[in-house]
Structure formats: C-alpha cells, structure tokens
Design brief:
heterodimer; A: 286 residues; B: 376 residues; mainly alpha; 18 helices
C-alpha cells in the first residue's frame, strides 16, 4: 500500500508529460516571437569593450547581459533568440515541404502500386542506404552554404520517411471494406484518397511529422555547426555552438548555452509528440 | 556451442509458429494485458511510426508472396537483385551530387580561378561532355573501385578512405559494443521490474537520450569529463583513454532504441507458455530469464542492430567531427574545405555500399533464423 501514492504520481507524470512538452514548446515559440521586445539588444551589434562577459550566475557578470557576451561582445541572449527564429523556421518549413513531397510519393506508390510503386520504393531504399548526415553534409558542400540551400538539402533528404509510412499504411487501409464500398459507389480515385484514405492515416502522419521537427532542427544546427549551413554573422544555434567550442576550456557556457537551447527545444517537441501519440492511440486511452 | 544455441532457437521458433495458429485469442490476451498494465507506448513501440523511422528496415516484397513454394535461396536471390538496384541508385545519387546544384567546375576550383582556367579544367576533367557519358565513366570507375584521384593528395580517393576506415570502424564497433553492454541489461531489468521505479527511470533515460542532439551531448561530455574533471582527453586519438568519450557518445545515441526493443520483446516472451512451463518445471529464475527468455528476445534485437548500422555510421560521422577522430568523416570534412570532391563522393558511396551490405546480410541471417522463410 505504501507504493500507492508513488504510483499515482508516476501515472500522473505519464499523462502530463505531453503537456510539459507543449509548455516547453510554447515558451520557445513565445521567446522567438516576443524576444526582441523583451530583450532589446542587436544580435549583430558588437561591443569590443564588453567581450566574453560571463552569464548572470557568475560573480563578474554584467547585469545588462543576462547570458553574457561572445568573443565580439555580442549579447548571447539576443543571439539565442534570433537563433531560435532560424531553427524554428527551418524546422517547420523543412518538415512541411518534405512531408508534402513524401506523402504525395507515398500515395502514388501505395495506391497505384505496380511499376510506379517499385520505382518509388527503390528510391526510398536508395535514400535510406546513405548515412543521413553524411549525405546532407556532402550535398551542402556541393550546393554551398546559405538558408535556401540548407532548406533544399533538408527537404531532398527528408522525404523518404513519410513515403515509407504513407505507402505502408495506404496498402493496409486500401484493403478495408469501406474503401471498396467507396469505389463501388463510383467515387473517383482522388476522392477515395482525399476523403477515405488520408483521414485514416492522418494520426500516424501527424505524430511522425511532430517527431521530424526536432530532427530537422538538430540537422540544421549540426550543418551550421560544421560551417555548412547558416553563415555568420547571422545568429544560429549551431553556429554559436561552433564559436563557443573554441572557448570551451575556460568559458564552457559559450558552448553549453546554445546547445542547451537546442536540447530543450528538441526535448519539448519530442515530449509533445509522445503525448500526441499516447493521446491518439486508442490502446492507451482509458 | 553456437549450433546448440541455434537449434535451441529453431526449436522455439518452430514451436512459436505452431502456437500462432491460435494467434487471434492469444494477441487479445496480450493486448488486454497491456492495457491493464497501463503501459503506454513502450510496449507497442515496435509498431509506432517514430520507431519505424528509427529502425529503418528496407521495403521488401511482402513475405507472404515469397513463401509460396520458394526457399531461402530464391529469397536471397531476390534480395540480392534488389540490392543491386539499390547500388545502381547509389551510384546515380553519388554522381549527381556534383551536378545537382551548380556548375561542378565552380565546386571543384577555388573561387579565384579565372575563366580560362575554368575552361581548361572542364576539358581536362571531361566536364564538357554529355552528362550520360560522364555518368557512364563514373559508373564504370565505381564498379572497378575507382572513384577518381584526390586533387590534394594526388592519390586514388579510395586509398585515402581505406587508410582512414579502420579508425572509423574501431570507433563504431566500440560504440556499438558499449551500447549493447548497457542497453540489454537495462532492457531486461525494465521488463522484469515493469512499472516499478527502475523501469520508469530507464524510460526517462530513453526519452532524454533520444531528444539529445548527439553533437551537443558530446560537447557536454568534453566539458564535464575533459575540462572540469580532467579525467579523459578532450580530442584526438592514440590511446584507449581517447576512445572512451567518443564511444560513449555513440552508445548513448543507440541505447534508447535497443533498450526499448529488448524491454518490449522480453515482456512479450515472459508471458509465453513455454516460460510458464520452464518455471513450473522448477528451473531457477535466472535460468528461465537468461536461457529461455533473453536468447529469444535477442533475435529481433540482432536484426535491428543490422538495420541500425546506418545510424551507427551516421553517429560515427558526427562523433568524429566533434572529437577530431582521424576517421573517414574527418577526411570528408577536410576534403570539403579543400574542394576535394572525389574523396567526398567516394566516402559517401562506400558508406552507402557498406550499409546495403549490412542490410542484405541482416536479411539473409533473419531468413535463415526464421523457419517461416527458411523452411518455406
């Protein structure tokens, strides 16, 4: 009986963990949107008199710069805020476009089968044979750095997961009675796909798409970290992490702060995705 | 010893396929038991979309079709043909890397090259010829293991990669070994002590581990263990101590998937009839757990390990760049910054080929282990 309250607490945690994720994500989005009004430093404004100031918990901190400044005297907090705008934009845009591409290909493969299916399936298999990050790195090297190229590369390498999921689910759902019924009633293929098939696979698609956002954010920041993505002086989390790495020996926070921002954001979205999945899965609904 | 173990598995697997005749009501009991146990997604994680992504088995023709009057040999042959198609696709993508986005001469030459320089270079490299001709030349070279010469080292690109590959494989293997040593015991403990504190702790660890970007985790490892504690070197290679941090980084990226899979398989198997029989015979709990349950639970784990090979290599790529580990990925980055594209192409193609081979081998081993495929 002693374990009863603890179990109740743990169960509460299971149910509420998704809400924690939603809270973290909302906080990050709010900061990205309202940041410039809350903290009005120019993220590109250099101040060579205030270089490498430590963050607020340090005894030598400058109260004007809550999270300190970098090697050029730029305010870390405002760079973090501008970096969050880039990361969130890239994450959401890359996720949406690769989802669109992947879903269309998945429907073509799963609904029409035949030769178009074998072409698309083989394309998926080929794409999945590359270590993702190595392919993205070499594509960025070929395309050259920059926001647009980064987005293109993330989309070109991100679609196969959707195609595989949609294809598998469509093949499964297609065999069910209501689809044959729709066909028998004279529905066009487009109507069957849009009205009968897509709504049935929407749940798992939404969950997958949610999990893809943090993956895209991590990929974006890693490519920027390597100097292949967003270019300085534009503030990006990966770029800040790369700059902070040179000062790791004495000023660890320069690397730890942008990295923690990436971690917190991806954790938030992942928890949201976990919550969504549990919420949508009838097996776990009580 | 292996053959005994193998015949053990075959026995159990045959039994299991006989048992699956009553699969309907059986799966109901499992479902019901799952719901009542209030286990959320971790039990069903194998069917959930996110884990489908994580485990990335290749799309193959449905097993059901293959079984009709066919044997392992025809399955393997079909799988081989599929691998050949994929290898052809890999050559196509590796080739088009250089042509997809912009003029290859601009990628390969330093930005200050003059117009005459560019023209001469195009003629010399054959870049002025039709794409089909260029591709045929590339494919022919690739089939003979010739990816062109490195501009910087003026040696075959393949040689450079072959030199660095042992370091990458060492890193990947130690990361994998570390991950297996941690995740399988954790998975077993979580399964046995289901819904207890240790199970929840393990799942929290899995959630955190999956959300953590590998490159950030590794930088934090450096800050904590190399800068603060001064226990281990921050980067480079040469001694066993240099291997510890990079290998643990890779391990953390693999542990969540392996641990969850071990846990869910163990939970499934521990509710099987033959486990109850083994217990009823009066066998010791440890014998039942390790000899009867764990060995069978590990079959899909081994399969997943094969499919995770790509993820493992990807992890090695990230890790090498963080720890300045002198493997293939560091070579790729150096080559990128030197515009030495043949080396980049060769590395991409070789890694992809290795993954195709690993997937093929995994499929063949799985077919061999699984009587449903093997016995036809």
């Amino acid at each position: 009986m002693k374990t009863q309250p603890r179990r109740a607490l743990l169960r509460l945690g299971q149910v509420r963990i998704g809400l924690v994720g939603v809270a973290i994500v909302s906080l990050v989005i709010l900061l990205a949107l309202l940041g410039p009004w809350l903290h009005s430093y120019n993220p590109l404004g250099q101040d060579l008199h205030a270089r490498l100031k430590p963050p607020v918990w340090h005894s030598e901190a400058d109260p004007k710069h809550l999270l300190g400044t970098d090697q050029l005297g730029r305010d870390t907090l405002s760079r973090l805020i501008y970096g969050s705008r880039i990361s969130l934009t890239v994450g959401v845009l890359a996720m949406s476009f690769s989802a669109l591409l992947g879903i269309v290909l998945g429907i073509l493969a799963g609904f029409y089968r035949g030769s178009i299916d074998s072409i698309i399936s083989n394309m998926v298999n080929v794409m999945m044979s590359f270590p993702y990050i190595l392919l993205a790195i070499s594509m960025m090297a070929a395309a050259g750095p920059g926001f647009q190229n980064l987005l293109t590369v993330l989309i070109l390498t991100g679609w196969p997961v959707y195609t595989r999921l949609v294809r598998a689910e469509i093949i499964e759902v297609k065999e069910r009675g209501f689809v044959s019924a729709a066909h028998a009633l004279g529905c066009r293929n487009s109507r069957v796909i849009l009205k009968h098939l897509l709504p049935n696979i929407a749940g798992s698609l939404i969950v997958l798409a949610t999990f893809e956002i943090p993956r895209m954010i991590i990929r974006e920041s890693f490519l920027s970290f390597l100097g292949l993505g967003i270019q300085p002086p534009m503030a990006s989390w990966g770029g800040m992490l790369a700059e902070g790495r040179s000062y790791m020996l004495h000023m660890w926070w320069l690397a730890a702060i942008p990295g923690s921002a990436i971690f917190l954001t991806t954790l938030g979205v992942n928890l949201t995705g976990d919550g969504l999945r549990d919420w949508m899965d009838p097996r776990t609904r009580t | 010893m292996f053959s005994k173990w193998h015949s053990d598995i075959r026995c159990v697997a045959r039994r299991a396929s006989r048992l699956s005749l009553s699969a309907r009501d059986h799966s109901y009991t499992i479902c019901h038991e799952r719901r009542s146990a209030r286990v959320t997604r971790r039990n069903v994680s194998v069917d959930s979309p996110a884990d489908r992504f994580a485990t990335r088995p290749p799309i193959t023709t449905p097993r059901g079709k293959a079984e009709k009057g066919s044997s392992v040999r025809s399955y393997v042959l079909r799988r081989l043909l599929q691998a050949l198609i994929v290898i052809w696709g890999i050559s196509l993508i590796t080739f088009s890397l250089l042509h997809m986005f912009r003029d290859p001469a601009l990628i390969l030459l330093p930005p200050e090259a003059t117009q005459e320089h560019v023209e001469a270079f195009r003629r010399e490299m054959g870049l002025d010829r039709p794409l089909v001709v260029q591709y045929a030349k590339f494919l022919g070279g690739m089939l003979c293991g010739d990816f062109g010469r490195s501009f910087v080292a003026s040696r075959p690109a393949l040689d450079l990669i072959a030199e660095r590959m042992p370091m990458t494989l060492l890193l990947a293997a130690s990361g994998l070994g570390f991950a297996v040593l941690v995740s399988i015991p954790l998975g077993v403990v979580a399964a046995v002590r289901r819904n207890r504190l240790s199970d929840h702790a393990a799942s929290v660890f899995a959630v955190l581990g999956q959300a953590m970007p590998l490159f950030w985790l590794e930088i934090m490892l450096i800050i904590i263990f190399a800068v603060w504690m001064r226990w281990l070197p921050a980067s480079g290679s040469g001694s066993l101590a240099h291997l510890v941090l990079p290998a643990s980084g890779i391990a953390v990226s693999l542990v969540p998937v392996l641990m969850r899979l071990t846990r869910s398989r163990m939970i499934e198997i521990l509710s099987e009839d033959y486990i109850r029989t083994a217990r009823a015979k009066g066998l010791r709990a440890s014998v039942v757990l390790f000899k009867h349950a764990l060995r069978n639970a590990l079959i899909p784990v081994v399969t997943i390990l094969g499919f995770q090979f790509g993820m493992l290599l990807g992890g090695a790529v990230i890790t090498e760049t963080i720890f300045a580990w002198p493997g293939v990925a560091s070579l790729v980055l150096e080559s990128i910054f030197n515009s030495d594209f043949p080396v980049v192409q060769a590395a991409v193609a070789i890694f992809a080929l290795m993954i195709v081979m690993a997937n093929l081998a995994t499929d063949v081993v799985a077919a061999w282990l699984d009587p449903k495929v093997r016995l036809g």
